[in-house]
C-alpha cells in the first residue's frame, strides 16, 4: 500500500478505506522502515493518530521505554524485519514486551504477538513490509496473576493459529533450503527469470559459468520463453571477454504460480564434446581434401579454413621456408570474419617453433594465445602451422588433438608434396643423362654437317642430289641446335657453364627485353638490383615474353611487373588466354615437353625453352613458377635474390 490517492477497483470498492477498516492491527512499512499506512484497529491499539505516524520511521514513532530496566522490544522487532527484508520470508515472532507511549508522554506496558511479512513487486523485489500485531497484554498479565480461566479458550485459538503459521514457515524454509542445495549440486546451470527476462535466482553452476553477466547470445531464445514458448536444445556459442569460449545447450520454459518469476532456464556446457566432434569432422575433411588431386597452394588455403573453423580459432597460418631467402614466409592464412590485423603473438612464434621442432603454446595478457605446430614434427620440419585464439586458454586435450589429428594430416600433405618434388628431381636427373648422351652426339653431328657442306660445293650434282643434301644439312643443323640446347641445360644444372655475374638493374633489363614488342605493358617504376648474368637472364625474359605473346588472346595485353618482395626480386609475366590444363602444369619445365595445344596448332618449338629458362634461374639461386590452373590469366613468376 502507499500514501498516494486511493485505488478504486472495478467493483467500485475503495480499497484504501477497506484496508484501514480491517479488524486486524496492521502497519505497512517501506523497505527503509518508514510508515506508509496503518489500519484503524492498529491506531486504537497503540493510542495514536494516523497523522502522527505516517512518514515516520517505525522506531522513531515507537521507541523503547527509557524507564524500562530491561528494554529490548526495538532490537527484537528490528531483527525480525531485517530477516524479512534479507530472505523474503514471513517471520512469526514470539510474544514479547513492547511498551508504547501514552498521549501524556508516559509509557504503558504492553505485550504483543507480532507477525512480519514481505510484499513483492512485479519484478520480484520487496516493495513493502506488513507488520501485524495481536495485543496479548491481558493474557500475559492474567497469567502472571494466575487468572487464566476466562482467557483460556481465546488464547488456545490464537496459539493454534500462531503454531500453524510457524510450522508452515519452517516447512517453506526447509523446502527452499533443500531445493537450493539440490540445485547447487547439479552440473547444469539453472536460472529463474522475471518478466523482463532478467535472472533473479541461480544455482552455483550458473554463478561459475556466467558470474553476474547476462550475455546477449542468451537473450533471443529467452525472449521466446518469456512470451510463453518452450525452448528445447537451443545451441548457444558463448564468448565472454577474458573467458574461454563455451558452447551451451539451452532449454527454457515458462512457469506459473511463483511471485516475481516467469521463466526457468537450464544451460548445459557441451563445449568439450562439441569441439571434439568438430575437430574430428575437420580432420576427416582435411584427409578427404588432400587425397584428391595434386597438393597445391589452394589446397593449403582450404586446409587453413578447415583448421580455423574446426574449434573456433580466430586465425590460422602456415609458414614455409623460402628457397630463395632461406627465411620463413607465410604461404597461407585464414581469419575469422576476414580480420586482417595479425595477432601480436605472431611475431617470432613460427621461427621459435621451427627451431624447437616441437609444438609451442604461448599466451599473452590481452592478446589471447597461439599454438604453433611444426609439421611434420621432427628435426627438419617442412612447415609450421600457427593457430590463434582470442581467449587465453584452450584445453590441453584439444591442443593435443590438433597436433595429432589435423597437424598429422597436414604433415602427410607436406610429405606428399615433398615426394612429388623429389620425383621431379629424379626426372631432372634422367633428363641430365639424356643431355650427356647429347654431348656425345655433338662431334659426329658436326662432322656430318661439314661433309654435307663439302658435297654441296660439287658442281657435278644434279638437282635431285642437291635437294637431298640440302634436306640432310638442314636436319643436321636442327639436330645440332637441339643437342646444343641440351648441353646448355646440363651445363647450367651442373654448374659447368660459368655465369658472368655483375650488379644489374632487373627492371632496366625487363624494359630492354620488352622494347620493340607490341601489346606488352610494363609496371616497373623503381630499380631492383640483382647479382646476375644479363645475357642469360635476357634469354629467360625473351622466352617468357615470346611464350606469353604466342598464347595471348588477340586484342589483349601481356602484363609484366617488376618489384622487390622481402629480400627477393620478383618479375611476373601474365597473359589472358587459354588456361594451362591441370595435368600439364607440372610438366611445363620438363625436357621436350610440349602441350596438346602446341602440337595440334603447329606452334614451332622443341620443348626446351622453359627447361633452359628454369635452369638459368636456378643457377642464379632463384625460382621460376607458373600460376595454378583455373583463372583466365596465366602468370609466370621469376624470383631472384636481391643484391
Question: How would you characterize this protein structure?
Answer:
It catalyses: ATP + protein L-histidine = ADP + protein N-phospho-L-histidine. It is found in: Cell membrane. Its main location: membrane. The chain is built from 20 helices and 26 strands. It is of the alpha+beta class and 643 residues long. A 5-stranded antiparallel beta sheet has the order 2-1-9-8-3. The chain has a 5-stranded antiparallel beta sheet with strand order 11-10-14-13-12, with helices on both faces. α17 packs antiparallel against α20. The longest helix is centred in the last third of the chain and has 51 residues, at 406-456. It is rod-shaped and about 170 Å long.
Helices and strands, with pairings:
Elements: H1 15-20, E1 25-29, E2 35-38, H2 40-46, H3 50-53, H4 58-61, H5 73-87, E3 91-92, E4 96-97, E5 100-101, E6 107-108, E7 111-112, E8 115-120, E9 126-133, H6 137-145, H7 152-184, E10 189-193, E11 199-202, H8 204-210, H9 219-226, E12 231-238, E13 246-254, E14 263-269, H10 271-290, H11 297-310, E15 315-321, E16 328-335, H12 349-356, E17 360-364, E18 368-375, E19 383-389, H13 396-404, H14 406-456, H15 463-494, E20 502-505, H16 506-514, E21 520-523, E22 529-532, H17 534-551, E23 558-565, E24 568-576, H18 582-585, H19 596-600, H20 609-619, E25 623-626, E26 633-641
Parallel strand pairs: 21-23
Antiparallel strand pairs: 1-2, 1-9, 3-8, 4-7, 5-6, 8-9, 10-11, 10-14, 12-13, 13-14, 15-16, 15-19, 17-18, 18-19, 20-22, 23-24, 24-26, 25-26
